[in-house]
Design brief:
Oligomer: single chain
Number of domains: 1
Number of strands: 0
Order of helices and strands: HHHHHH
Distance between the termini: 58 Å
Structural class: mainly alpha
């Protein structure tokens, strides 16, 4: 008997969407069992995540420059960047659209924000993904620097 795994991108994306949708529906089952309400909750989470990641990046470099906060931010940025690159979409958008049965609130919000610049929404999202990758790379190099300094200090190596 041969066991085969179906590891195509669409199947993985659909499985992740179903898992996270069920998880969020379970978490908010005390509030509502209506899928539309849960879809709007996912939309609010999407906007909050999009606003909080740059804010945490700023805080981790100015107000509270701690290794663990930078590590947490790097992990979050890395996973956000990788799911954008691998699936070519944020996994929250199809979840929200499936539950609300309409377009996500994220795109109209972005259109209103970037309308004065004259940049297309899809082009702007491409810029955001490039910025996420560059930021994750910079955070990774910074964390590597912290670890290298710790190792040098631990072994008494003078630089």
């Amino acid at each position: 008997m041969i066991i085969t795994l179906n590891l195509d991108k669409e199947h993985i994306q659909e499985s992740l969407e179903i898992f996270f949708t069920k998880f969020i529906c379970y978490l908010y089952s005390w509030l509502s069992n209506d899928g539309e309400v849960i879809g709007y909750i996912i939309g609010v989470f999407h906007v909050l995540i999009a606003a909080s990641v740059p804010l945490i990046s700023f805080i981790s470099h100015t107000i509270y420059p701690n290794f663990w906060l930078k590590l947490f931010n790097f992990i979050c940025l890395f996973f956000i960047f990788m799911q954008h690159v691998i699936f070519n979409i944020c996994l929250l958008i199809p979840m929200e659209e499936r539950l609300t049965k309409q377009q996500t609130i994220f795109y109209p919000l972005l259109e209103k924000i970037i309308k004065p610049t004259g940049v297309d929404v899809n082009q702007f999202i491409t810029y955001i993904v490039i910025a996420e990758g560059f930021t994750a790379l910079c955070f990774g190099l910074e964390l590597f620097s912290y670890v290298s300094r710790f190792v040098y200090k631990y072994y008494g190596i003078d630089i």
